[in-house]
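Dear Dr. H.,

I hope your travels went smoothly. While you were away I took the liberty of generating a structure for the chain from your last submission, since the lab meeting agenda had it listed for discussion. I wanted you to have the full record in hand beforehand rather than looking at slides cold. The sequence, exactly as received, is reproduced here:
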Amino acid sequence: MNNPTPIPQSAAAALVGDPASFGRVDESGVVYVRTLDGERAVGSYPGKSNEEALAYFVRKFEVLASEVALTADRLRNGAMLAEDGEEAIKKLRQQVETINAVGNLEALKIAVENISPLAQARREAEAARKAAAAAAKAEAKIMAAAEKEKIVAEAETLADSDSWKSTGDRLKVLLDDWKKLARIDKPADEALWKRFSAARNHFDRRRRTHFATLHKQNEAVITLLSNGAKLYEKNLMQQTPIDVALKPGHDEVLKTLLSFSGMTLSNAKFSFVNCDVPVVI
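The corresponding predicted structure, in token form, is as follows:
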């Protein structure tokens, strides 16, 4: 009896045709599989017909062939890590060598060996992906370091600004931008953050001092007016207190002066003609 010719390449190829053609059942019910090395007994199925016994051992072969095909597909599609694939190949080799089943076992052995290049390709792809991720992370750190340096430099230029509202808003934006950036090397990150915090804290202290001073000025104005200070007396520039209070940053004092005068901005006539945009009360 001639040995069957193995069909190489894939587990699917091992299933081409009828796997049952690689087996037979003798008169005592023992099932045999034909291989390149000759026949060998794979077992029996007591109480079943010869056809049922043969079909049982064919199903065992088909289950293993399906597992081989699934492993190859998962490696090919990137659904399995190379390390897991290599471990799976080892187990499949052992199973193909020891399985008691009926089918083209030689073709299935070749199919298992053909998975190895897929595992190697997956390992190379994983290495390339890791290298690309590392390069991207390094590039992100470089960009983040440059952006953080810009943020710190701008914050330091704003630290002595007297535009309290707009500068405060801008510093908040810079802080949000900082939080969106990737972490860089710890010593460099900490040094830049220290400079950034110092600039923000310096501005905040100046702003608090400024408005505390304005509050004290307003209290002084109230005290003076309550004790008979002249509301419409002019200075050497021919400006009344209200004219001077029209300058930016004196809103609270302006409200106090208008309150004592009984006037509003819509009906008061001011002599100060070079003031900034009037504050709307």
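Two observations you may find useful: The radius of gyration is 44 Å. The first helix runs from residue 11 to 14.

With kind regards,
E. W.
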